[in-house]
Specification:
With about 170 residues, this protein is mainly alpha-helical. The chain has two domains: about 1-95, no CATH class; about 105-165, Herpes Virus-1. Helix content is about 50%, strand content about 5%. Strand 2 and strand 3 form a beta hairpin.
């Protein structure tokens, strides 16, 4: 009997998912580490894989989804559906906004024109990108744009909204 490889993704309870999220964020976009971590997820644990994809840094998520599409297109579609379901219900499943907001088809179908482009750089959003809501979900901003604004201490507000950035 071979020894079992430790996987931080074995359970979807709150504390183990948070631990997995912290690990994924701490390794950044070091693909070799993330690839090894993803390969510890048992094949039947589709929800664990989908949540890991949701929670990892954007660049790694894009690469992992591309590879998954080549290896198993059906599994990729199922993971995207789970990510979309999580994003639809994010307010109730993640009330403290610990995990990233990720662009899904649901966002395209349900959000207005103000969501199509980043409020800061005005470039369009792409599927599976990280983003931040602004002004009570009235506007959205790329994750990298939000980081730039916060690093520069540059408040950006809406002409219609009385507040500066609110995430």
């Amino acid at each position: 009997m071979s020894p079992r490889c430790y996987s931080p993704f074995r359970s979807l309870n709150g504390s183990s998912r948070l631990a997995s999220y912290r690990i994924l964020r701490s390794v950044g976009n070091h693909w070799d580490i993330i690839y090894k971590m993803l390969n510890t997820i048992p094949g039947q644990e589709i929800h664990a894989l989908a949540y890991a994809l949701n929670d990892m840094p954007e660049e790694s998520r894009m690469k992992a989804l591309k590879m998954l599409g080549i290896k198993n297109a059906e599994m990729k579609l199922e993971c995207l559906k789970i990510i979309e379901d999580f994003q639809k219900n994010k307010d109730s499943l993640d009330p403290l906004n610990v995990y990233p907001h990720v662009i899904t088809g649901w966002h395209w179908d349900t959000q207005g024109d103000s969501f199509r482009r980043c409020y800061f750089c005005e470039n369009p959003f792409k599927s599976n990108q990280d983003f931040h809501w602004l002004d009570g979900k009235k506007h959205a901003m790329h994750h990298d744009c939000m980081a730039e604004v916060l690093l520069q201490s540059r408040p950006t507000g809406c002409l219609e909204c009385p507040r500066d950035i609110v995430t």
